[in-house]
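This section describes the prediction task in plain terms. A model, or a person checking by hand, is given the sequence of a single protein chain and must write out its three-dimensional structure as a string of C-alpha cells. No templates, partner chains or ligands are provided. The sample shown here is typical of the held-out split.
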Amino acid sequence: MRQKITMITALLASLSGLMGEAQSSESVDPANSARVRVFQEAEITLYPGEYCYGSGSPAAIQASTSGFSIFRTNRRVGMPVTGDIDGAYNEYVIQAGIPVTVMLQWAAEKNGVQASCGPIGSTFYPQSGKNYDVTIGYQGNCFVQIRELYETSPGKAEARPAAAGPSFACANK
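The expected answer:
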C-alpha cells in the first residue's frame, strides 16, 4: 500500500510540471503590435486582417478550445493581470492597426439539457502598445466580450469595454 501511495505521489508531481504557465519568447514591438489574452471558456479563433470569420486564412489563430484539461498551460507574453477573471488562458502578440475578427462558439450538456452559443463574431482594431482580453460574455444572450486593459500598477490591470462591432461568417466559407 505504501508503495502505491509513493507511486501516485510521484506521478502527480511529474504531471504538475506539465501544468501551469509557459512564457512565450515572442518579441513585442509596442509601435506596431498589441497583445491579447484569450480565456479558455469557449472555442475562440482570431482572424487578423479580416472583417469576417471562417475565411480559412492561414493567419487565423485557434486561440482557445473549450473544455477542461489538466495538461493545459497558460501561454504568456507578459501581459498585466486583472483580478476579475480566473482560469486558463493564452496570450498572443498581434499586429496593431488592422482589423481582428474574433469568432466564438460554445456548447455544453448537463443532465440531458443542451446549451450552445454561436458561432458569433466581433471585429476590433487593436491599437499599438495596448493590451486586450477576449472571453464569452452573457447578458440575456451570449456575446464576444472584448476588453481593453489599462495598467494600474506594475503587472496589475483594470479593464474597460473595447470598441468593437459585429462580424459575420465570410461569404466564401
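For orientation: Residues 2-16 form the longest helix (15 residues).
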